[in-house]
């Protein structure tokens, strides 16, 4: 390749095109070669040296530290309870932030959960999906090697969260860059669909009997794995699992998925989901500004809160089906809806020329339809769902399916063909899958559940809280890690001889 670059330089300097040869003595017509710019230079990694040096300063018991990784909005509130509990139990811990949500809106969770002082590293990740992936892959591994050289003899265990891009790529980077595995909070997420979904006709208006049968079938029929979606989250969680040593699974179903894939039983801990701790924290904390101050309309009546942002739901047919269902809910039913816009929602509305139509709908039905930007403070979401002013959430979020089990009077509608939290449906009976087939499915399922609830098998006031007791999940996770940290030897390496208990590694050597 160096020869090829030299030939290209010669061609540029002479401003002529000629024939060159590569190392295989094959003639190359350089006039057919084109250079592709692969992007601008990455921003530097920022390290708080003072905070880094203080990690082990007050710890005489441990020669290992927990590196809690955050990147996206759900990471902020699901990982924050782990940091709080680690400090409470005296476990050396700090935060690695990808910095990809750097604006005041998406990044506000760092301030809301008081995480800033614990951030030792900001990777300053930017760009689209492939740019963020490549940037994260390189920077996370480089920072790991920096820690290894700077804190010689100290073990660092990153703990990533869920099925985010950060979970997949950061884990891969750590394994490839340092030859060590990580911990995963919220592991084993695998998408499933009810078998009855294959019988739905895409272009047919569903009868009310069809709607009710599909809803009740979700509690009784078999479910099958559907790994295609969400994208890229299902890819991220599979990659993450392959580089994980300490699995913290929300439910037994998640553990069953992992065991089926060949992960050792002894590495998987069923602990619940740390989101319940985050909800508990917010219920005990005064919010900065009430959501009802920002949007006084929400004070009157029963509202449905709606957020749609998944990549697969932003495709042409699905998005138009979902937005068509929203329009029908406003124009043809009694329901009130507050639509929360995320970046993906706004992009799709503009792409399909629907933004103006929704704004006109908001003007026509000011008492029934409200459009808002993303709610910056997670405490506002908790406040609204607790207020009694919201009877349902229409969402394609993964996390909201978990969270809504802990809001007694709120029905959950998940607008997707599958869900990576199927246990919220057939175990907890607190969630309903709404396939985005065409515009008729959403309003008809919402209406059927509103009218018949218990008759359809869903009693949202008695839904099971299957993700653990608030305030207890993070305690379980940190106690498990504390026992591991108290061991003299490190168990972060991926070797089979270590898993089979032949011997433990004391040191590794640089070969990667």
From TrEMBL:
Residue ranges of every copy of the UDP-N-acetylglucosamine 2-epimerase domain listed in the record: 228-482
GO molecular function, one term: UDP-N-acetylglucosamine 2-epimerase activity
EC number from the UniProt entry: 5.1.3.14
Protein origin, superkingdom: Archaea
Keywords for the protein's UniProt record, in alphabetical order: Isomerase
InterPro entries from the UniProt entry: UDP_GlcNAc_Epimerase_2_dom (IPR003331), WecB-like (IPR029767)
Stated name of the protein: UDP-N-acetylglucosamine 2-epimerase
